[in-house]
Structure formats: structure tokens, C-alpha cells
User: Fold these one by one.
Assistant:
Number 1:
Amino acid sequence: MVDMIAEADASSPVSQTAGVSELSPQQLDRYRSDGFVVVRNLFSATEIQGLRQETERLLTECADLINPRNLRCRYMAHHETGESLFEVFDPVNDISPICEQFTHDPRIMNVMESIYEEPALLFKEKLIFKLPGAMGYNLHQDIPLYWEGFPRTFVTVLIPIDETTRENGCTEVFSGYHADFLSNNPEVYMLPDETVDPARRTWLELQPGDVAIFHGLTPHRSSPNRSHAMRRTLYVSYNASSDGGDQRTAHYAKFQDKMRARVESQTGGKTYFQ
């Protein structure tokens, strides 16, 4: 069973080189066959500590933004009590210059360009806090079949701010499924667990400073956070420049339009973006 990240070797999708500027040919081969790759030690402990302090600032100085009617915010149920817990700022760059710096960091951009073989463009970014007790996500692929024009080159870089473990609900990816959609029904986004072979699972157990990169069609899920601490992660997604150009502004306008009716139904009040 592929349930652990392998130690670095010539056939491993893992780099141990700090400040790597691009993926090696072996890593690219593994990314293309598996749909994900892990790069160890891309960022220094000092850089991640700065990002960690920034998340603490956001929770205090931007506390007035945290509201279920604010389309920037989303909530997740507690896996035992059902209590609604604040989960994510999406987007986050416009309220956090430090997060914005990470999303455009040359090391990430170089890695993405080695995947695309052309310039990469920021598509979206979200800062997930995953409070203790918060539910995870059911199995899904990130590229929605129902969303016409959504870039097929959508790739996400997962930047852990805290250690990601099975206990705190790290992301689980399933290798080799990223060539196409696993459902041909545009109404289906969350997939049944039996859609994938459990033998293809890898838990993305990462240390702060590592990153994981996975294709938008790589199926993934996560379990509840059963630890006593937050599991903060910055998720940054890109598209190839030839695949629709700069779409971030248009994406968020469309995304918020899609969310509005659902959030207003859930909260019983008018939504806003702040």
C-alpha cells in the first residue's frame, strides 16, 4: 500500500534540496504518472515562522471579517458536536501581504514553470485554519466538471504552516487518476470512497517548509482534525498562461456568484464581500 512518502532517492517524488529552482526529470516523471509530488525544505524555518505569525495577526486584526455572511469566509462543522467552526479566508492575498509574497515566490513559480513548460499564473489562494475538531473533506477532484472554461491545467501547491499528520487530518491523495474526471455527472462533485483504490493512497505528512503539489484532477480527501491544535495550510493554485491567461479576478467574481444563494439560504441573511 502506498501510504507513506518515500525517502528521497532517484525514483522518489521527494526532493531534499532547500531552495530548489525546478523539479528534476525524475520528479517530473513521477508527477506526470502519479499526479502529485512533494518537495522537502523549500522554505526555511524563519520564513514559515513569519507566515505562522501572519496567521495569528489575521485572526486578531481581521477578526471583524470573520462572519458566515462574508463570502471571503467559510465554515466547517465539528466532527462530533456539529458546531460551526471558522475554516478559511478565500481569497487572502488582499488582506495579507505575506501570504501574497508566498503565492508569487520565485521558488514556487520556477517549480510550476517546470511542470507547465511555460509561465504559471496565480488562479486562487486560500488560507485554511482547520481548528481542532473540524471535519475534513470527502473525496473529490478540484476541477469541477460543471464549470465551463475552468482551466484543465489547474494545479495546487500546499504550503503547511503547521506539521500535517494523520491525527490532524492531513490531505490524502490517490495516485494515477489525474488524466480525466472520475464521474461524468456534472451534478456530482464529492465522490464515493469506492471510486478509488485505497492501495493508491498517500498521506501528505509534511513538515513546515515542505510543499506538496498536486494536479486538479488528482482525487483527494482529508479526515477530521482530532488533535488539540490548528492545522494551518496555505493552498495556492495556478494555471498555465496558455490555458486562459490571467483568470484570478474573473474566477473570484464567478465563484462568489455561485456561493451567494447557498450562503444566503444557510444564514438567512444577505451576503457581502469584505
Number 2:
Amino acid sequence: METNLPLGPLGLYIHIPWCITRCGYCVFYSLNYRRQDFDAYFELLLKEKQQYLNTNFRPLCSIYLGGGTPSLLSYQQILRLLDGIPVLPNAEITLEINPIQITQNFVHNLAQTPINRLSLGVQSMHDDDLAYLDRRHKANDILQKMQLLRDAGFNNISVDFIYGLPHNNLEKTIDSLSLLLNLFPNHISCYLLEIDPKSRLAPDIQQIPDDETLADIYHSLRLLLAKHGYMQYEISNFARPGYQSRHNMLYWNSDEYLAWGASAAGFYRGLRYQNPSDLHQYETLINSHKLYGITDKGASIESDYIMMRLRMVKGLDFKEFTRRFHKDFCAMRQDQIHKWKNAGFISVDTNGLRLNDKGYFISNAIIADLL
């Protein structure tokens, strides 16, 4: 399985699990910010970096600093962290940013680093929604902050947008997205709010709009984004031509990516692994000079490949699947394929299979069935 395949692109994800305040909807591994603990964590990252550099991995096509709040890193720390990492020419280097941190001084310093793509957690252009989501910025601040970034030379800016909040209808959601589109970001990720039963927002789970309403909202968002020149290339992701996230494409194309930091997950040389989601265990891992964290021996690369490819608008290519796994994708799935095709949720031809417009919103059910 996947033997003798040429080496594809390689990326790197670095997790910074610290936040000034935790958002009520967040399910990622994050910790309350304390400067002393943050600086100690940074030193562990530098140790992990050196251990990986000793393996002489090939140059990276992308680096993604995510969190948590990676913009808590000073520009000097970003320079130290990225220094010496082999990258390809014009590699995409992304930093997630909390909008409240965008100041003239912050942007001036950030422009001195190799960061060339920014991902802003805007989430909504309505202040009541932002307050509900525990976001501390105001909608009216975003225009000025976007301008600061552009004036400093950052011309590849992505924004996150959340829909499906309790009590939010179609009209309000479209208004919020329309206001965001007036800021002309290069890339937009539209995520359906998912409330974790253990989160602060758990009591509101029953107040989320019903599935029919959410489907209407999702398809209306897609139409509005298309009207404004954003190409959908994945279920939740839309970009102006040439601004697709190269790092996220690694995940969806089943390419390789390294992972540094507590809870970070990677895929390298056929191995899926994850660092411990615990600071003490992460420190023990680094100090023991072990790479690749906790390996997932039960991981199915084939299943992950199917799931990721079907999330993409281009879908799954039958010949490529056979080349990778030496199997016929359709052989054991004729009934499921026939069912979803006849219902109008997928398109199938001799080349491959992809979700239809009608199928995007219920993609999880379709993909689960095809797995």
C-alpha cells in the first residue's frame, strides 16, 4: 500500500496552546496564558525543533503556526523558531492571529519575520455574536486592523467565519458575511458552530437552528461567496484564485506534515502520530529525545484518504486511489454509490466520485457510509 510513491510536498504544523481567554466554543487543546509558563514552553519547542532538524527532513512547502493563540509569540520568538528550518522558495508560512492583538507596533514587528500569510479569527461582524462566542474584538475594529496588515505588506489574509449560532437566522448570517466580504479577504473559512457538551455553551445545544435551516444558510453562504468571486475548493473553504491554503491542501491531499508542540498531530512516512495533550507529558517526550509523539497504530490511511478527498470539491480520483492502495474503490461500495447517486447527492463518472452541491451539507453521513 502506497509503496514506491514519489516524495510529495512536506509541511509543518506548530501548536501554541495558550490563550488570554478561552472561547466558549473551543475544543482545541489550550491553556490560560502565563508568561513564565509560555516562555518555558517555547524553550521546549526549540528543543523539539533541533531534534527534528537532526533528521535532515526535506525542505518544507508550508509552515502553519496555530493554536491556541500563536500571535502571543513575540516577533523575536517567531524569528528564533523559524530560523534554520529548511523551506522551499516561496513557501507559505501562516500565523493565526487574534484581532485584538493587531496594533501598529505588532504589525511593524511581524513584518520583520518570514510570516507571509495571516489567518484572522474574525468569526462574525455582529458584536452580539462576538460577545456570545467570547471574542474580545469589535466588528467595527476589523476594517482598520485589516488595513494595518495590508499597509505592512501582508497581501495574503484569510478570515474565519462561524455560522449556525443559536437564534441566528438566514438574514442575520448573510448580513454578517456581507459585511465581512466588504473587507476583501483573500480566503474565507466558513465553519458551522459545533457546541461541545463539555463547553461553556453546552446548555445552548438545543437552541441551535434545525438542520433544514442550517442547510439553507450554508447554501446561501456558498452562493454569496461565489457571487463575490470566491471559489469553493473544500466543504468549508473558499478562496480568490491563487489563494487556496497550501497547508490545508496537504491534509486534504493526504500529503505529509510534521507536527511540533503539545497536542500537535502529524503524518510522516506512513505514520500518524500526535504529541501528548498535556504539558508535563510533552516535556517528558522532548527530554527523552523521542520523535513523532504517540503513534496511532490503529489509524487507517486508506479511510483518512477517502474522507479527506471527498471533502474536496474535486472529489476522489479512482485511478489515483488504485495507484495508492491497489484496490478498486467501487468494488465493495456499489450499493452505497448507487443509493447516493440516485438521491442526487453525489456525481460519479469513469474518472471519480465527488459530492454534489446538495451533498456538501450532509457530507459526514455520505462519507461515513462510503467508508
Number 3:
Amino acid sequence: MEETLPGVDDGPGERVICHVDMDCFYASCERLREPELDGEPVVVGMGYEHGATHGAVATASYEAREYGVDSAQPISEALERLPRVADADRSDPDAPNPGAAGHYRPVEMAFYESVASEVKAVLHDLADTVREVSIDEAYLDATAVTSWQRVGEGNDHTEPEDSRTLAAGYGRHVKQAIQRRVGVPASVGVGPNMAVAKVASDHDKPDGLTVVPPSAVEGFLAPLPVEDIHGVGPVRARELAEMGIDTAGELADADPGRLTSRFGDRGRELYDRARGRDDRAVTPRGRPKSLSRESAFTEATDDETAKREKVRALAADVAERARSREALYQTIGIKIVQPPFEVNTRAESLSGPVDDPELVRAVALDLLAEFDDDAVRKLGVRVSKLSFDGGRQASLGGYDAGEGTETDGTDDGESPATTLTDWATPRREDETNGERPATLTEWAGDEANANRTSDGANANRAGDEADANRANDEVDAKSRRETGPTQPSLGSFDDSEE
């Protein structure tokens, strides 16, 4: 957790809520792998391959949207509006124009989830309370680390009032931290409650920052189209239009009794939202199932000492976080990202839950040994299968993991403590010994959407309250890559939830 930003008042005040929405997230992830795609139309989906008969768009970059391509669109329609670059040929007059063609990429969920876990680790560093909505958005309650206090007088002609608040500085800090540490853009909205923050994050896309102080809520919302109010979809917008309500201001001025009569309790809720009222608390979705930390090298390295030092530091950090939450863990794992973005995971399962920082370090270093000769760009350490019941932890003795690992002897002249294999019968989860291999889905702390469609559409996004129940997808032990058609909820970014 970072220190409180300077100048924050100690006393209570209006809440400061941030909504973080990753812009065209899948396309942004593809640009991480292929920087040459920056500024180019990018479509992520399934079914564009030769011989494919159906499919759908999962994500389209803003450049692709200019051609009429959008999420959940049939891939055949997308190809009509924006042909593939691979099909373009300047020498063929009947071929698509290369200047009006797009780059199509398949959905690679494991990679996207890996990037998402990095983003959400940043968010957990910046706020005590984070509510993860989906793979690409989250709410932060930043009340404890910033405020609506104004800083400096500024120039009313060149600088809007909201940009001179500590809350605005915090929002900029969130955006910059995500860009600097992960390399993907985000739009951030800051407001006094969840509903206003959500509308604010949608207001200036892509890569935008919109800050709405409490005193500016009414003026900000009133001129917006009614469909911009959080909770108003296309159908409800048409119904409101039939009632003569086209803007948020008109909804705020409407008779709440009439709205309730037409829409039930939802009518009153929308009335309150249009007035900027929302008393919902930003609450995490449950206790974490895992805790992890990741760190990248400035450049890919095969330096064994550097890799081991980083893993030691990450292991100590993760173990301390688990102890601070009074959590025991039964699985210890590492993540290794090799150039350009090849993601691998390895894990050991213990016979029972423990709280043992030295064991986390030893197991993590032992798992890292497989990659001693390999260049890596990023490393991570994770503990999972957490328990919070305060039960007695397993007695594991020492762990003989080779170089750099300490084992404890006894005081009565007996031989050193037996290895973890003797005590806990660990299971190396990347081996084909009948155990289910650790997956990147698990690393990111999510459960894959059990209702994934065959065409890769992200058509049914249910808003910020939607919980996607997702099945754990098996990933090959070496590459740990999986593909999947939808854009599911990750649960907690850094810490997966029950």
C-alpha cells in the first residue's frame, strides 16, 4: 500500500471512488506483443480463418470501430467492413485495399488474463478496497488515500476546477501507474460514488480521465443522453424516450412515482442515479483464493543470480501479505514470462495449509531451477488454496531444495529434518502424474466462464454487477497458453476470490 498522498485532510469527507476501464483490452494486449500494431485497426475474435464458417468479434480497437466493426459482431460482417491485411494485395485490383484493412488476431485468454493480473496488482497497491467487475474494469475506494481537497488556486481560464483536487491527481496517478508498469491504456473516472465514477470513465475514451467533484455532479450529468446513466440499456432508453425522457437531467426531474409505476423499484434507482445518488459501498467479492506478486526486468535476462534474487524478494512479499491477512496456503507456485510473451507456470501442492515464509522461498527457488538457463522478462510468485479458519497448519519440517535452501537440524544429534517430500508429499503440478496442472486461469485468480460461446463473442456483458462463473481451463504444462472466446470476469485482479 502506498503512502497517503500529501495534503489529504485527516477528517471525514465525501467518498472518492475511481472506476478503471481498460480500453479495448484484448487489442491492447495484442499490441504489447506486437508494438507495430499501435495505431492500426486490430480485431480480436474467432472465425476469420480460411475455411471457418462462423465466429464473432470479441474486441475491436477504436481504429477498427471507425470502419463499423464492434464487439459481438459476426466475423463475416466485420470482414466485409474491414478486410484482413493478410488478404490485401496492392498488385491485385480485386484484392482489398491495404490502406483499409485490419489486423485480425485469435483470442488468447491465458495471455490476457496474465496481463489483467498485472493491472489488478497495481490497483491493489493503490487502494485498500478494490471491487473487480470483469477482466477489464474495477472500482477503487480511494477515500483513505486522497480527498476532494483543492490544491493551489490555478487559472480558471486554463485549468478546470476538478483538475485542482487531490482526487484528480490520484486519478492521473492510477492511469500513469498502469501505463508505466503494465503498458496498456486505461480510462479512469473519479467521482463521489460508484454510479458517477462509472459514467465518468465512459465520458472520455480512450485513455481518458474525467473527474467529477461532488459539487459538479448535477451539472455533469444533466446534459448527458439518458443511456449514459449507469443501468440504462438500449431497451430502457427507448422506454424512457416514449415517456419524453431523453437526457439525464429530464430523468432527474421526472416524477419518481411515475417511474416506479412503470419500472418498479428499478425506476426509483434510475431516478437516484440521474441525480448522482448512489450509496453502494465498494466491496470486494469475497476472500481471496490466492495471493501473488510479479515483477519485470528492464530487459529480458538469463542471469541466474538476478532471477533468484527477484524470486526471493517476491516470495518474501507474498508470504508477508499472506501472514498479514492471517491466511494459510497449501500451494506455492511461480510464473515465468519468456520473450516475447511466453507464459509458464509451475507449482507444488503440500499435504496441508501452512504459514511458512522460508518454505515459500525454498519452493519458489526450486521451481525456478528449471529455467536457470532461460532468458526471462518477468517473474511471479503465488500462494494459493488459502484458508482463513485459523486451523492448525501442517508440520512440514525442512525442505531440501538444493542450492540456496536451508534445512533445520535437530538439537539431539539426529540427522537434519526430512525433506518436504517425506513430510508433505508435494505434487509437482506441471508433471503428468495424474494431477491437474496449474493453469494461468488459476494464476490470475478467476474461474472461466462456464457459458463460453463457440464463436468468441463478448456479447452479453452484464454490467458492473455481473459475476461470471467460469470453469478452470486446462493449459499445456509447458506453454500454459489457452484460448477462449469470451471476456470473462477475473474476480479479484491480484487475489482471486471465493
Number 4:
Amino acid sequence: MSRKISLAPDEFYHLYNRGTDKRIIFNNNRDRDRFIYLLYLSNGTRPFHFNELKPDTIFSFDKGGDLTNIVSYCLMDNHFHILVQSIDDTGISVFMHKLATAYTMYFNKINNRKGRLFETNFQVRHIDSENYLKYIHSYIHLNPIKIVEPNWKEVGLKNNSAVKQFLNNYTHSSYLDYAGNNREEQKILNKTAFPYFEDKKEFEEYLEDWLTYRPEA
């Protein structure tokens, strides 16, 4: 599929995709865990055979050099978001092809189905400013809020503390890795590629501005 934008080295891009016909692509935590494992494994130059790896050794697997710098990600029921910094002009495409192919093969096998799982190859938006970069980073991490408060962007949060607790329990995004949790999933990320929110306090202060936002009446 031809693209309207070129993927240039050192630039940031918002990558996303959803299930074909808006179908659910993550039925349970097993599916979500599999996709997160594949985020790590697919972002490398070395081939891998998933069935030869044990879950507790996946993040220790030598996947070779990174194809792109993953900055943040989030999984929802029928779509996902990934923020990356490009390393070269081909790495993102190779990474996304490996990721989509591996996950589709897994999903089709366990659900006894055939054919396309995702709506398109993948969607991409170029991040062309500092403010937009910080916004997308936060947007990705706040995306799960609509599970518990679907209209929060239109009316504001009803329960700020409950939402924060929900985010702290949502394990299928990189939110916890920026919130100071020490877990193996942080090996997916290249935080040094992202020049903002160098510590937990900066990250939480920026998100707080969005969480306390109230639309004008």
C-alpha cells in the first residue's frame, strides 16, 4: 500500500490500527500478552520462533538491533497505538509487518479463522512539533480511560482518583513504565529517544493537566 508520507530517520510517528470491520482483536489478557511479547520480539533484526521461547525468557531473548525506537504504546479491545522514533527509512515498515503478521497468524490459529485481521497495513501520522509529540504520548496513555468513563473528554472526569487507580492497574500500555513501575515490559521501550518526562514526577504532572481539564460549558 502506498503512503502519503515518507518515513524519515529520527522523526517521530504515531502508528495505529484497528480490527477489520472494527472487530475485537484482543479477546482476553492472553491475546494482549501475546501482542506485547511480539512488540518486543518484532522490533529486532534477528528472526525468532515464538513457540520455541518460554514466557519468562522472552524479554531476555537477543532480538538483535532495534528496527525503530518504541516510545509508548497502548492496547484497546479493537485497536492499538504505538509511538515510535524512526531509525532509518525502512525500519518502521519492517517492524509493523513482522508484528501484524505474527499476531494475525496467532489470532487466526486459536480462533480457527482465516484472512485479514487488521483494517489496513497500518496507519501513520508524522509528529511535527514538540507540543504534538507530548500530546500524542499522553493521548496514548490516557486512551484506556474511555473504558470506565466513555465521555470524559466531553464532560470531564467524574472521579479523578478512581481513574488514576484504573490506569495504575492497566497493564497493557507503557503507562506503568513511565509511572515508575519496575517490570520487564519496559525493555520494549527506548526512553532515551524521548526527550521529555525524564522522571515519574514530570510524567504525572503533565498527565494531571489533562485529567483535571474541564470543557467550557
